[in-house]
Design brief:
280 residues, alpha+beta, four-stranded antiparallel sheet, 12 helices, 25% strand
Length: 280
């Protein structure tokens, strides 16, 4: 199919982009990497009056360290994240997960801001941000807001973004030398959307002082497994693994075309165990 007719705009500044998106006389939609939006247009699942191409807005680009945080521009592409020495040094969980995100052609165009704004429940990035206690900076006509990842993802393709707001930056705290990370996902084929996956950030070289565990592909959004986090606190993985897996019974779980709810519940324990045993 072909997309519906639309007007195309390519602003050069963030202020111009926000002005276009705030125009109440038209239904404007931002275009970042287009890896999800273009298929939606072709299938007529989206029909905006205007596409606002963000690829000329330099204010949304770049990766930098600012004190204790890594700040990632919303238009940073997955390929850029994968090639970044800053990401490799300070965000090892990103480096573990990036090779599993789609295929090279998609990673060359897809952006972190686009993925976060879409909030696909089977995507890796929302879970990574939850596990790393990241925050999302958004800008609109009412000013700048900083939203914790825990509060940003609200449901199936639903976020805390308000009409006319844009994600400008992702802020991720840098972790200490004693921190360890785990990532595991199950997919029918490498590069496909995951049937189930988990991202873990843990503190402590032997016993786990604290950790954040985030699942994706289990329901309508990425979610933290707070019960499993509590079960692991102050204990080694070997001692706490069974209790952590039992605590997953509290997770909201829904079946889909890939697997039933019962199968999903089984797979949640599988991916958690594999990620925990591989903490590095």
């Amino acid at each position: 199919m072909k997309p519906p007719n639309f007007t195309y705009a390519k602003p050069k500044s963030l202020s111009d982009a926000l002005e276009l998106l705030a125009d109440e006389n038209q239904d404007a939609m931002p275009l970042a990497g287009g890896q999800s939006l273009m298929p939606m247009l072709n299938f007529r699942l989206a029909a905006p009056d205007t596409l606002v191409d963000l690829n000329g807005v330099e204010e949304l680009c770049g990766i930098r360290v600012d004190g204790t945080h890594v700040r990632i521009g919303a238009m940073a592409r997955y390929a850029e994240l994968g090639a970044s020495e800053l990401v490799a040094e300070h965000l090892p969980l990103f480096s573990m997960a990036l090779p599993h995100i789609a295929h090279a052609a998609v990673r060359n165009r897809g952006t972190i801001g686009g993925s976060v704004a879409l909030a696909d429940p089977a995507a890796e990035m929302p879970a990574l941000l939850l596990a790393l206690d990241a925050s999302i900076r958004v800008l609109g006509s009412s000013g700048l807001r900083t939203i914790a990842a825990d509060d940003f993802f609200e449901g199936l393709y639903e976020t805390a973004l308000e009409t006319g707001e844009l994600i400008t930056e992702i802020s991720v705290p840098m972790r200490g030398a004693q921190d360890r990370f785990g990532f595991y996902e199950l997919a029918r084929r490498h590069g496909d959307y995951a049937m189930m996956g988990v991202a873990i950030a843990a503190a402590g070289s032997t016993a786990i002082d604290n950790c954040r565990i985030a699942f994706f592909g289990i329901g309508d959004k990425a979610v933290r497994a707070t019960g499993a986090e509590t079960a692991l606190r102050g204990r080694s993985v070997a001692d706490a693994l069974d209790d952590a897996k039992m605590a997953l019974a509290d997770l909201p779980m829904a079946g889909d075309l890939n697997a039933s709810e019962a199968t999903k519940r089984h797979l949640s324990g599988v991916v958690l165990e594999r990620a925990l045993r591989d903490l590095t």
